[in-house]
Design brief:
single chain, 251 residues, alpha/beta, five-stranded parallel beta sheet, two-stranded antiparallel ribbon, 9 helices, globular
Length: 251
């Protein structure tokens, strides 16, 4: 039997290459022109916002329910999800939806600050469990009238970057919003579920598939639940919610 030769210096060489790669990244980072941080105005080599402002963003670091991402004492499933679980089985969220992150998301959606979508997606990429990747991504669809008005779907922009970075199948046209409903933000929490009931239609067979639904903000979960219902009707067996931010109590 032929065995591979042992190279005592191989691990050391790989370590050197790894550190060289990191050093090259640092050099490139400082060669590229700095830009004003969108939050504090200081010059940033770290992207749209500087490292100091990034550390102050409301990252969802506290323990939370794995299903809906609301805070729980020990990271256990919350009472509401035990009593009346949503149609999606888990939520991945990067931030709590509070200042100043909320203003950045609003600027992306309503101020056409589209580069923010790429930055938010990169944050999501970092917290997604690479050992439990889905079969495909489906972005939260906009009604055609809303899409014409806005000119873009921010959820699709997020999903495109995530799909590319994790080499995932993106299904941008799998689901449609068939009812042009009033904005959820204009409604009470109780009215939101009724507002989006039967608002989505899924047009492809998803039998046995693990699907992640991508959106910018999860508030009551009504829209996500309605989309999950449409996806589940087409046979998806595991449905996850991937969002940039989760609205938290009192936020």
């Amino acid at each position: 039997m032929i065995t591979a030769a042992h190279h005592p210096g191989k691990g050391h060489t790989l370590s050197i290459l790894h550190h060289t790669k990191l050093n090259i990244r640092k050099v490139i980072k400082h060669i590229l022109p700095a830009q004003p941080c969108v939050l504090c105005g200081s010059m940033s080599h770290d992207g749209l916002w500087c490292g100091a402002c990034d550390r102050d963003l409301p990252y969802l670091d506290s323990r939370h329910c794995p299903v809906c991402a609301l805070p729980t004492p020990a990271g256990e499933t919350c009472g509401q999800c035990l009593i009346q679980p949503p149609l999606f089985s888990n939520t991945v969220a990067v931030f709590g939806y509070s200042f100043p992150l909320d203003k950045l998301i609003q600027a992306m959606k309503y101020g056409e600050q589209l580069p923010f979508a790429h930055s938010f997606a990169k944050k999501l990429v970092k917290v997604i469990d690479i050992d439990a990747l889905p079969d495909c991504l489906i972005p939260m669809p906009l009604h055609p009238a809303k899409l014409r008005e806005r000119g873009f779907n921010q959820s699709l922009l997020l999903a495109e970057t995530i799909a590319r970075d994790h080499n995932l199948k993106l299904l941008p046209d799998a689901c449609r919003r068939v009812r042009d409903t009033p904005p959820q933000s204009a409604l009470s929490w109780k009215e939101r579920k009724k507002n989006v009931r039967n608002a989505f239609q899924c047009d492809i067979d998803l039998t046995g598939m693990n699907v992640a639904l991508v959106d910018d903000v999860l508030t009551t979960g009504a829209s996500m639940d309605a989309l999950a219902a449409a996806v589940g009707q087409q046979g998806a067996t595991v449905i996850s919610a991937w969002v940039v931010a989760r609205t938290l109590p009192h936020s």
